[in-house]
Amino acid sequence: MANFYLKKGHNLKITGEPTKVLSTTIAADKVYLHPKDFKGIKPKLMVKQDDAVSVGSPIFYDKLNPDVKFVSPVSGVVSDIQFGDRRAIERIVITNDGSGKSVSSKSINIENSSKADLLKCLSESGLWPNIRQRPFSKIANPNQTPRDIFISVNTTAPFAPESLFILDGREEHFQSGLDVLAKLTSGIIHLNMSESETSPIFVNAKNVQHNKFTGEHPSGNVGIQIHHIAPIASKDDIVWYLDAQSVADIGEFLNTGLYPSHKIITLCGSSVLEPTYVKITKGASIGDILFEKLNPDKTRIISGDVLSGESRSLSQGIRFYDETISVIPECTEREFLGWALPGLSKYSVSRTFLSALLPKKPTNLNTSMNGSHRAIISFGRWESVLPMDILPEFLIKSILANDIEEMEKLGIYECAEEDFALCSFVCQSKIDVSGIIRSGLLLAEKEG
Amino acid sequence: MKLFRKYLDSIEPHFTNDGKLKNFYAMYEMIDTFLYTPADNTTTGPHVRDAIDLKRSMVIVVLALLPAFFFGTYNVGLQEALHGTGVTLQNINFDFLTHFLIGLKTVLPIYAVVFTVGGIWEVVFAVSRGHEINEGFLVTGFLIPLVLPPAIPLWMVAVATTFGVVIGKEIFGGTGFNIFNPALVARAFLFFAYPGDMSGDKVWTVDAMSGATPLLQASSQQGISATALLSGHFTWEQMFYGFIPGSIGETSTIAILIGAAFLLITGIASWRVMVATTLGMTLTALMLDSFGTAIGSTNSMLYLPPAYHFVMGGFAFGMVFMATDPVSCAQTNRGRWLYGLLIGFMCVVIRAVNPAYPEGMMLAILFANAFSPLFDYFVLQANIKRRVKRYV
After folding, report:
1. pTM for the model
2. Which of A45, A116, A364, B215 has the fewest CB atoms within 10 Å, i.e. the most exposed one?
């Protein structure tokens, strides 16, 4: 048990908070698989158009790790496969026949299984991609042994689903998942929760070390937690991480032999009518998920949270790892003399608007950049929202200079773009800090 | 308002792509984003952004400078009146508007020259480099007149502004890349190029009348304490409120402190730099005092108490508005402590030990500007070592 108090950070107060009610399960007519959701894989198709598939049927695999399969979350027919540049697979569309027919394997006794058995079973099951590694936030390599495994059940990203709520009724599976993970590493399974956490599913969890974190976003991000518990030293210092639902999915699969094809996400943001928690089929199209729930004005649909999510259209699926769909208004207005106004209704972490004197209430933020791009000037804003012992400005400058040696010294391997999203948010020069971190990681992975 | 917008939208094609005036897009962009918030929307995460931008940050600094500007302009008029026969601080009429308007006659032309000359350079560089016109000059342009003596010839203002903007900033690549504070570079240029007009009695040659600044007064004689030298001319209160000769914006410590409070509340300026500079000045002044006693020195400036250093010369102004410049100061929080301490130390040392320059603040800040990368280097190395230790 260890306690961490993080002083830096910021919880976004925006409108469109989901009510803690699970609305009816959404029927998915079609599901979309986007191989590009997964970093660092070389997908190879295992099906052709018009092939019939069941829940859990492999659709493609990773050429770099042929054991790792990616499976269908529904039963039906492969109705379309689209390719992009150089025949990279853009998306695979599977039409759902609604029967729910599933590939079933035997349930496995976790305690008596060897590590090799479990690895093989998970790789074949299609659940393996849920386990990711740091550095580089890519799918874990089953041939490597991680130093430790980290699970954050303390989500602080804007409107991320509450772990306890989405695991309701899956307590046993969650513990089974932890038991499986414990067999995959000789290190420690770190279960990171908020300091006020009291629910037995987490505080009584076995085979884990309990860590408690206090602080605003991004203190719930697993990357920040790894940094404080046991930082990543180098490119070869591999740790794994996964989210709470994935742990329960792994447990459920081994207990029942069936691929868990649903997940619970939050639908949120000011442009969603009645924001709630919803249960969806994995890979369901955003059009199906948002059917009759969308404000008709011009909106931005984001798979993920507003800070680190990705813009998506109605004809795409939710990203594999996302547990949130946020919809916010697109900005179309330009304000007259905006820089000179007192700014009673402006949302700013800084205290440069009069709104700083008023109590913070949820604000309806749109996609406006609220300024234009300028040179890096250190007013200390990045540091104020980054609870890490890392000097962001020097790291960013070393990345811009392609200085790999300096990047490594300044801790690039401890970084993930999501942890720096708030730095981009608060920057007065509108620097894309998280984007620069991403490019730095790509460079370090390739040439470091 | 709509009309403006329509007009701007209608002329925009001339400045983009193949328009005839595409080289002058920077000017269009400046006017367009001055009048209306920029049209840019986010494309990737974060999809929402904080309301603050560089324009807002710079406007905050200008607002913080207003008390010093208003008082300084008023004081220019007041000092001019004080040179009339039989007028002293005891019997003068302190009416704000009268003196302010007289002062404005001196200050406004200086501002006009700074913004015209500096503005032209900004546009020339923005257009030739194809980047946006930066808001940084708004602050530099507002600062330069405030650190100049009011009697300065306007051609000198133009030359100094040119030097400050071009050599102090643009040759490094523009705002964000300069290593020295451009306004201070402008002032230092005048100081070294035309020393006769920058220090000594000539500073206050307003209509052929002169008066020594308190710093000059305090260092004018050996063997007598600085406070005694001052006592016949200036009281601490007068210097704190600013009814003294000096550079336009530098005289009133209280007006500067009001600006400082605003900068600290809004979080635009680094409180670490301000605290460290004051601390460095205080410690050095106390140290020199006991050092002077120990060796029995007759240098009056060695014994000047910290409270006097604080209100005299450009100390307060430099600390609040120049030392805290986020571009030229140290970039790390720990580095900022060292940087501030060095400024306070150097300022007092130059004032007390160097007989040629009674004003040390300008040189102290420029000196610390040059050292700030070194402080950052130490902080960086410490950070690297500390993190390596945590790796298992």
Report:
1. 0.91
2. A116
